[in-house]
Amino acid sequence: MKSLRQWLLNLLFQQHEPAPEPAPKQGEEKIEVESRQPVNGRTKQLIAKGVEKFFNEHYDLRFNILKQAEEFRPLSAEKAPGFAEKAAGFAEKAPGFDGGWQQLTNRELRRIAFEQMKKVGLAWSIDIELYARSTMIPDYDPIADFLSHTAPWDGQTDHIGRLARRVPTTFADWPDFFHRWFLGMVAQWQRRSRDYGNALVPMLIGPQGTHKSTFCKLLLPRELRQFYIDDIKLDSAEQVERLLTRMLLVNIDEYNAKTTREQAKIKRVLTEHDVQTRRMRSDSYLMLPRMASFIATTNEREPLTDPTGSRRYLCCELTGTIDTDTPIDYAALFGQAVAELDAGATWYLSRDEEAALELHNELYRQHATAEDLLTARFEPAPRQKEFFMRAADILKELAKDVRTADLPNLKQLTLALRQCHFPHGAIEGRRGWYARQRTGADFLRQRTGAEFL
Fold this sequence. Notes:
15 strands, four-stranded mixed beta sheet, single chain, 17 helices, alpha/beta, elongated
């Protein structure tokens, strides 16, 4: 039976052989190109071993679990033209960091496949890809690699506190809150909690030229700075997925420039821990841990607008320029964080601390006027009985969406009704106003702008 099957396969292959090429012209060299014949089990073993031997002799391969991508580097710099110069240039910018690793793109994979065919000639590009894209390649965790090389902590020197005090501010609790946020950032990288993400966001408030963005970028060492980004785009769910799972620190630069809709999205992602994302080169999905922590900068003194509270933000108003010139001992800095977390240090805020932080943030929240609150929920209406409301009834409706501390009193509300030109009248001896509640699209447009729709 096997011989008959092999005979049929060979016959089928012969029937699909390409047409013979024309004879070369005078002076031309004829290049012999062999077609790939049907292979048996023994030949497959030779191909597999040949591919593995080729990579063992020429390239290192690894799967970067943070990037969710394969990476490679030549085993010998001398065998890769220009590689030594590129690696040396990278190392000069990032001392101690091996810059030889590159992402294994499809273009690089084809080049390696052609190189293998020239040197060995046995495997095809599909064989090279089958090996390079498989789980035979070891995983690489850049976070674990970096944190495993941190310096032991002496248990006394507060490197994190020193870093926090580079920020000039009159906020006495800033170093303690920053310390907690820094521990939360490292704890999230190490996936120490399966239930909570780092939901705190330090917000540096100060004029331009005070080195706010530079300070944010310097929070990561050069080894990890490729996982820092100073902008956040929330245009698509796929962008947000990549940002949360592949970045370590996101700077929400110029927070005040974000729309109300964008600020609401940011507030929502802060509470996420795991992110559902699509696999590379696949239609299937998997759950990946959220890696990104957030920090923010703004030039506005009152950047917070949410009337329901801002316990997620750590507002710090600058009184001068941040020190970004003094070198940072990253090995000691992150060594302290790892040691404290290993010892059971708390990296999230208690309810009392959240309440204290929210009270502090009231200094930096825009308080809506009575006119803003009124027109967000109501609009002037025709003088019809169905729209007639007393001022006390309007105030009662506003209280459903606004905190008590932000509610206007009856005198302020009455003045706002006049200034916003709400019709005034009386029905059955009771004086009141003609107002129609905004609902659905009208309410959303008034609160967040037309772009929300």
